[in-house]
Amino acid sequence: MSLFKRLLKNKTKSEVNKNDSDHSKYYPEAKLPIDEKFTYNFNKNGGKFLYCENWEEVKDAFDNILLENDWYEKDVFCFDEQLISKFSGYNLTFGTKTKATFFLSRCESLVANNGAILLCSNQIKEKKLHELPFNSVIFATTSQLVENISEGLRIIKNKSKNQIPTNITTIQDFECDKEKDFMSYGSSTKNLYLLLLEDL
To answer: Which single residue of 17, 50, 112, 174 has CA 20 to 30 Å from 24?
Structure first.
């Protein structure tokens, strides 16, 4: 049989099925893109995700969060001076009272493989998660997406060559009625909104 005939020869149905089953049986599962994996796991954890393409959309989304929860004219727990100036036009009182209505902060990384938010003393100083307000609004950018916690820790280490920040922790439990497992031991449940700005 010539080479062309072998190449152009139609496979029988059994050969096609055999090849398909071999392919699916031994071929590794398709890997989700990092942004899809984070979105899936973050939503599964109970987080509320708001994707924004520009700063105007971030401000609109923040305004909608305030409106939905009736958080106008409330106290906000926030250490970040830049965020305070960015969100100053909403009649909010910014400070460090732990009895505030919600916590507003940036984060170090967004961890795709478990949908967690990686924080450290740059965002929360020496506070523990249970000392922060139950409601949280985290501002992040798409360039902060990492595959796993190890990658996030490596970024913290590289950014902070002189002094590595302390109090490194993750928020990954966003639903009160979820059953706790071993990995969430010591963590604190939070009602969390994520404002994610596209910067890539």
So the answer is: 112
166 close to 121: Cβ distance less than 8 angstroms = yes
Instruction: Convert the pLDDT of each residue in 84-110 to its tens digit.
Output: 999 998 999 999 988 999 999 999 999
Domain count of the chain? 1
Residue 44 lies in a domain: yes
C-alpha pair distances (Å), 13 with each of 8, 25, 93, 171, 177 = 15, 18, 70, 51, 50
Cα distances (angstroms) measured from residue 80 to each of 40, 56, 99, 158, 160: 28, 20, 17, 21, 18
Q: What CA–CA distance (Å, rounded) separates 53 from 55?
A: 7
pTM above 0.90, yes or no: no
Backbone angles phi, psi at 14, to 5 degrees: -65, -35
Phi and psi based region of residue 73 (left: phi greater than 0; alpha: psi -120 to 50; beta: remaining): left
Give the separation between CA 150 and CA 52, rounded to whole angstroms. Answer: 27
188 pLDDT more than 90? no
